[in-house]
Design a protein that fits this description.
By secondary structure, the chain is an alpha+beta fold. The protein contains 2 helices and 3 strands. The relative contact order is 0.20.
Length: 77
């Protein structure tokens, strides 16, 4: 009986951990050089700004890279 409860608990924890560890990615632009990059933390300095507004969050780096190709405000250097 205790083994069943322990296995059930481990199963629930195993399902919950990936959801908690989900990383968000942002496309940010340097306000001086207009160069964009992908970061995994929301910028707090005024030297970088989030492209597309504060509500734009990507759930994978690949998704952010695809979106960055379509952003018009970023330079291509």
């Amino acid at each position: 009986m205790k083994l069943n409860i322990a296995l059930a608990g481990a199963f629930v924890v195993g399902l919950a951990l990936p959801a908690l560890a989900q990383t968000s990615f942002y496309i940010v632009q340097d306000v001086k050089t207009k160069h964009c990059q992908i970061v995994d933390q929301k910028p707090v300095s005024r030297e970088m700004t989030v492209v597309g507004g504060d509500g734009v969050v990507y759930h994978s780096r690949d998704e952010a890279m695809t979106a960055m190709k379509t952003v018009k405000v970023c330079t291509s250097d």
